[in-house]
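step=predict obj=MucR family transcriptional regulator n=172
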Amino acid sequence: MDESVETIEAQAVDYVELTAELVSAYVSKNAVRPGDMAELISSTHAALAGLGTSAVPAAPTADKATPAQIRKSITPDALISFIDGKPYKTLKRHLTGNGLTIEEYRERFGLPRDYPSTAANYSAQRAELARSIGLGQLRTKAAPKAAQPAETISEKPKRAGRPRKAKEVAEA
């Protein structure tokens, strides 16, 4: 039995030492904020320790936001992302960069279906800009113009075509 215990001990990996080596190699090539260091170490250690278990990992649980967090994330000038906590005027590019659509983002964090993807002030600013340059006015301006050409008579005389007698002779 002593041989089997020694074999198991030889196969046992020091996850703390391995974690330290991996994190130090990562930090030497990548910029990491000091506040994120603890999370990086713990997540690396958990991932390494999880490799040794043969159990099937459970589906990742979604981080559901509370109603208070949802209310705080919506401000007039920006939307606070639940992914990184930073403010954004529009979430489209941010979510695409993280491999999500707005629907997947809403589902992942338990957000309501009417959760905005653009800040209110930014939407109002863009709408005002569109109105000022005349976007959306094509139909109202096109209807009166369509009626005008039928009423006006062209000053140029019509171009003369072939005489009708020539057509009748050709057909006979």
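step=describe
The chain has nine helices and two strands.
step=end
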